[in-house]
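At this stage, I put together a protein sequence along with its fold in token form, as given directly below:
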Amino acid sequence: MRLHVRVHGGDLTKTPFLLVHGLSSNARLWDGVAGHLVAAGHPAYAVDLRSHGESPSPPDGYDTATAAADLDALLGELALPPAVVAGQSWGGNVVVQLAARHPERVHGLALVDGGWINLAAQFPDWESCAARLRPPDVTGLTAAHLRERLRSGHPDWEPWAIEATIFNLATGPDDRLSRRLPIPQHMQIVRSMWDDPPQQYFGRIDAPVLAIPAGSKTPDLAGLRDVKIRPYPGGDHDLHAQHPASVAADLLSLA
């Protein structure tokens, strides 16, 4: 397995950061945060998980546990010291498993509006969950149309964040968009989130944790021994795109 990584410089003698995107997202959405981390002197690495961004699409491995194992292998390949590992949305669930299964890899853990997502506690049954979370059809959607929708829906986002979000999908020569992560593989990941909630791993995490919920969420963090909560009332789910400077400052507190 090969994974694409965006490497953002920094002083290799300082604590590194590994930045992990959410479901059907990509590493570019961390660019703003990474820029601030590097300005503070820290190296930052943002990874595209399987079939996301510029990483290839193998036939299997679309579940939270495999994604966590991929991160363990990646950190070993990069030969990094213990890192501050940040995960957004489903990426938060992934990094929770990394910290529980491979504590030697993690200096600190940041959960950006994710890492506590327990779908089985939110829906009465799997069928209801699958129907609600199945991604929409993008047939006929163009990058230009999506760009205008994003600008209208997120007027406080910078242009780079809009373009990074469009990169969640592949743009063809006719400006038509298609999925990088096909719907069957997307739903395999959703099913793993249903079957494998992160709360069961909290008791195995020794690293300090910073939880960063957006809006009015009250995350279920029972079982974490060393956790601080930094809420963003009124924030978007993609906090790292909306408030990169503030999120980077929060992450630096773990270094």
Q: What stands out?
A: The beta strands are 5-7, 17-20, 44-47, 83-88, 106-112, 169-171, 177-179, 209-212, 227-229. The first helix runs from residue 31 to 39. The longest strand covers residues 106-112.
